[in-house]
Amino acid sequence: MIVHRVQVVDSTNLHLMNMARKGAPSWTVVLADVQTGGLGRAGRTWWSPPGGLYMSVLIRPEGGIRNQSRLPILASLAVLDAMGEPLLEAVRVKWPNDILLEGKKLAGILVSSRMEGAFIPWVVTGFGLNLTRSGQMVPEELEGRLAFFEDISPGISREDLAEAILKEFQRLQICLEDDRAWTDAIKRWTARAAWDTPYLHREGQKETEGVPVRLALDGGLVLRTEKGEVTVHSGEITQASQTLESRR
Question: What is the dihedral of CA 236, 30, 20, 65, to 10 degrees?
Answer without folding.
Answer: -50
